[in-house]
Amino acid sequence: MSSSAVLSLYFILICTQLIFHPAEAQSCEGRCGEKFSSCSCHPTCTTLLTCCADLNRFCLEIRPHSGSQHGGTDFRLINVTFPTDVSLTCRFKAEISTQGYVDGDGGGHCISPMLFETGWIPFQVTADGLNYTGAGRWLSVHHSKLGEAHKLVLVNGTQWQYYGTPGVGGTLRMTWNSSLIHAERVNVELWGYDETGETYSDQWRAEWTYLYSVGKNLPNTGTFSFVPTPSKMPLARWDMGSMRISPSTKPDGARNVNALWSGAHALAYHLEEEFRKDPAAWAFRKCLDWDQEEQRMPNFLEEITDCPCTLAQARADTGRFHTDYGCDIEKGSKCTYHPGAVHCVRAIQGSPKYAAGQQCCYDSTGAQVLTGDSIGGSTPDRGHDWGAPPYQTPPRVPGLSHWKYDVISFYYCCLWSDHCDYYFKHRPSSDCRTYRPPKAGSVLGDPHFITFDGSTYTFNGRGEYVLLHSPNHRLTVQGRTEPARSDSGSVINATLLCSVAMREKDSDIIEVRLSDRPEELQVLMNQQVLGFTEQTWMDLKGVFVFSEVPQNVTVMFPSGAGVEVRAHGGVMTLTVLLPQEFKNQTQGLLGNMNEDPEDDLVSSDGGVIGAGGSAQDIFSFGAGWAIRNESSLFTYDSERLLTEYLFSPKHDPSFIPIFSPSEDPSDPLLGPVLEMCVGHGAQFCKYDTLSTRSLELGNDTLRSVRTHTATVHDLRPVLSCGWLKAPKYGQKEGSLYLQGAKVRFSCNRGYRLHGSQERVCQEDGRWSGQETHCVSDDTLGIVLGSIGALLTLVVMVIAIVHYTRKQKRERLKDREDRAVSQHDAANL
Fold first, then answer.
1. Are residues 133 and 223 in the same domain?
2. Domain ends where: 222, 247, 277?
3. Separation CA 49–CA 815 (nearest Å)
4. Of 143, 210, 225, 530, which is least packed with CB atoms within 10 Å of its CB?
5. What are phi and psi for residue 640, nearest 5 degrees?
């Protein structure tokens, strides 16, 4: 049967509900975002149909598929042609329209609109203004995540940001890719960004406003320079914004036209003469205004997550934290806003109520840098730099809300003036006292499993299985295995992980699978291939995906769960990271996460395989976790996948693996194996090498085991006693606050130390000793003098009392003596 015939049969079977039980069928959504009215089916069918066939529509492939959230990208519809006299209209999110056009070759073009969100944006196209017969999707990207080839670049950004402050001035220059503006002549414009209305209410609005033109009718050469002059216009409120390049044929300030934007930045070159006369004084007034505004706004600090305690934890906890692009140790650590730090991370998810962000920075020793100790300390954000769903409204606008509430205010208080104490009062670093590292489970090699609690076993089933399922969090991770092959291509009685599919709640389904190229992974979203050639980070529905190189993919979910997939030598390695909230809430081949490795091999019917279970017992246990067609998250987009996985048992009972490879002394491979496979992971290494006859695969397995071990080590719990402040009129030595750390105190000249000179972070999470104070020598003299005077007074009082009592006793005795004398005289 041909491939097309198989696909047609598959569609018929699904849409007539011969494969799935009607109660489990899903409404079939096409790639155009419209429902098929005549078909109830599994989502996979949508990739096998002509898109939107039931609605007489077509899906549009576009190039490029992404651009700035600010809009202005000209993208072409590459799988359709139009008459050259047609006028196109492109509608985004069914509400924002932009004017498209048809080029001389009949190619249709759309212009992306100004958006206040990132992620995939649905769009439709009409050629007659009435019937939207084409549809597709557009990826809106955070301005800081665009490559320089796709935006307006401000040359020497420091000069732009500080223009007008002492010693900074001269000519400002910008560059751009002239081919991205389809015009011979261009205008250069300045736009301002602000958020107005009642904060944290439905009246809160984000706005871009055209301010003025910097240059008009300029040749589109890709470069422009100018010398700023102080603004004479009443525009003082616009302290942040962006430059824009657009065709000179468009009116000043025209929206949703072909354009390139710079990233958001401080408009120092735009500010009025008052700023240039005394930047520090001007900025301090702005800082005070911001301080008052912050005091009126809700406190978001109470709901943000704590930072990891160490750099190692921060870099390993990829489900909850991601590299801050402004301070990346892998790219030279250009930590402009955090001097002294070498790496920063940001919490991936915004806080629950206020969508606030968290930032954590670390120094070269791996210790967290805190604002209480350094201007380079990490600071939380009222506006998460990457925004937060549902985006669009403040303070959730990606990038821009962060600039409005957290960055420009840093310029006011710290960079343009010397009043960081105001800033740090509202943006203090979070320490790590409540941070709890996640647990890691892995699938690697041929394939071997390391559960969240550290149990290890080998399961070489062929099929599709539940690696992880958490009913409470509605998180599912499924794995597909296929037989390994020798260098000659023959099938080996062992399997390898070849694809992983996952979903949390109603998020997009993400599948990561080995591609035709052994060193590359392919990523699919809802059964459609995602391309990472233009972007490395994608904001999707209920999930983030990051892939900087084709061999590595990281998937992050709102629950804090992270999934890392790596490819090397044609072998896939999987690591799943789960926060402590998943404790006692996991099922599947990666075990029951509860700190007890003895009950990790729990079968799907509740039985437990104990430590004495045989390889055959474990094989039966694994087979029980085979998925069902109706719960499958996988894509079946080839005849092979349909035949071998969809129309076949999810666990292949005919495939019997090698349970224990022979270690034959006469085998010439045994010597190299025993020499290579030593230490932790040696058993897995030997199994893979001998079963596949590949030293390379065995070595890769050994490396993967050691990588997992290093991750577990980096994520080991670390206890913190919390930040200690230096005493007033004194100093402290030491900025590490973890268990065993020592902090020493001293006092300035003229002061004496009272309390503990050294305090140690103890295993109970408390500091030893007493709080330290520095007391002035003069104050001490006065106190001691006062004490001396008081003692003297007390002594005098005691002496007087004693003398008075003595006198009284003597008078009484004298009276008694006289009375006796008188009595004696009378008796005479």
1. no
2. 277
3. 130
4. 225
5. -65, -45
Q: Three-state SS for 821?
A: helix
Write out the residue range of the structural domain in which residue 42 sits.
3-52
Average the pLDDT over 160-177 and give the result. 94
304 with 208, same domain? Answer: no
| Per-residue pLDDT tens over the stretch 476-531 | 999 999 999 877 778 889 999 999 999 999 999 999 999 988 789 999 999 999 98
- Are 533 and 415 in the same domain? no
In terms of Cβ atoms closer than 10 Å to its own Cβ (0-12, 13-18, 19+), residue 828 is exposed
Label residue 375 exposed, middle or buried (CB < 10 Å: 0-12, 13-18, 19+). Answer: middle
Kindly state whether residue 668 falls inside one of the protein's structural domains: no
Q: Is the pTM of this model over 0.70?
A: yes
| Cα–Cα distance for residue pair 8/617, rounded to 1 Å | 40
DSSP string, 591-654: ---SS-GGG--B-TTS-B--TT--HHHHHHHHHTTB--GGG------SHHHIIIIISS-SB-TT
**pLDDT at residue 29 is higher than 90:** no
Cα–Cα distance for residue pair 397/117, rounded to 1 Å:
6
Domain boundary among 91, 113, 141: 141
Asked if residue 465 and residue 369 are part of one domain, the reply reads no
Residues 284 and 201 in one domain: no
Instruction: For residues 523 and 638, state if they share a domain.
Output: yes
Average pLDDT along the chain: 87
What is the separation, in whole angstroms, between the first and last Cα of the chain? 158
As for how many domains the chain has, the answer is 6
